[in-house]
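Forwarding the complex inputs:
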Amino acid sequence: MSDAHVGTLEHTHDEEHVAHQFDNAQQQYESGNLGMWLFLLTEVMFFGGMFGAYAVYRTWYPDAFEIASRTTNIPLGAMNTLVLIVSSLTMALGVQSAQLGKRKRLAWMIALTMFFGLVFLGVKAAEYSEKWHHQHVPGLNWNWTEGEGGREVQILFCLYFAMTGMHAMHMVVGVGIMTWLLITALKGRYSPAYYNPVEISGLYWHFVDIVWIFLFPLLYLI
Amino acid sequence: MQHHIAPTRMYIGVFLALAVFTALTVFVRLGLEIRSFTIAISIAVVKATLVILYFMHVKWSGVLTKMAVVLAVVFLGILLLLTLTDYGSRSWQPKIPGWEKHQVVQ
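Prediction (whole assembly, two chains):
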């Protein structure tokens, strides 16, 4: 069973996981994958709206945005970027473990992905509390004492919380998916013949990682 | 089912490349003290491409998946570019004499 990469698996073994609307396991796998990619396409447009707002306000108030992005904590942001990259690695290795039929390694990789996702959220919470402490939270706790242009600076902080908040919500959902994936993996549901949920959850996890890959330079570095 | 299974060392290699690019973009900002949109976003695009091609297996995916990825980029490009043709050009004032008389005062 573990040599799925060498040849096609026994037809009969494949069939037991195939839902009635599909001809065979291959078609089911490809349909599920494409469906996830179409969902991710809508997610790109969803985050795209916020990236568009960022682009508009950045072209309008470049100075205010530069001042505001100086207040973000680059070391913490860089650390979180690394944490997410590690989680993407463990996720990718999880999918590979499923492909190879290494069930124990799959469970470990899912657990590690979950762990690094939670580390990311913890660091994010620390950053939010730092912002709260500095009174840099528009609407709830806002007091700009670092010079002129507080109104324009506030726009970047609104975008900061909207974008990182939406991203963090996606991370929370991701950790939820990982929890379900871990439980089902421990029950031994996945094999080289059937690992679509692992692969598809991985696509979601990597997408959330990619969003952060763009948020980090936009909100911290420039 | 026949799927390409990449070796572990490939995943580690892609991870190391991502880590190096992250270090590079932070070094440009903190070490060289350059705040450059072009450099930071170029590095981010390279990193995203690595994740899409290798971690998300698009390199070995069928043509439909590849089309979905390209479509995502195209639609995002339309959204951002067309929005900016409006907002980015609003400060361009017409150079026709006397245009001020006709502008709408808000």
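The CA atoms of residues 124 and 165 of chain A lie 9 Å apart.
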